[in-house]
Amino acid sequence: MNSIFEPYLLSFIPIFIAVDAIGNVPIFVSLIENVKGPKRRKIIIDAVSTATAMAVIFMVAGKFILRLLGITISDFQVAGGAFLFIIAVRLLFPGAEKKVNSIGGDKDIGIFPLGTPLITGPAVLTTTLMMVDKYNIIPAFVSLVLNMIIVWISLDRAEAIMNVIGPSGTRAFSKIMYILLGAIGVMMVRHGVTTMLGY
Question: Where are the domains of the chain?
Answer without folding.
Answer: 2-29+70-193
